[in-house]
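Just scan my protein:

. . .
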Amino acid sequence: MSYLDRITFDPEQCGGRPCIRSMRIRVKDVLEMLAAGASEAEILEDFPYLEAQDIRACLEFAAAEMDHSILKVA
């Protein structure tokens, strides 16, 4: 199951950066919280309008963004 449909882009919101379900919380915000050691439960408690699937969507989006070729310039 893909959660990527939860990630939205709007040039009028957050500078067009990827957000969760058209809310003003960026994918980057959630990823930074996870990187800082926050648990899923802590994030959901602090942001009650988020859902567990939103956090999974952020992780899926980040994984997809990292899956691209790196071209080596000679």
In short: The radius of gyration is 14 Å. The longest helix spans residues 52-66. The chain has one domain: 4-66.
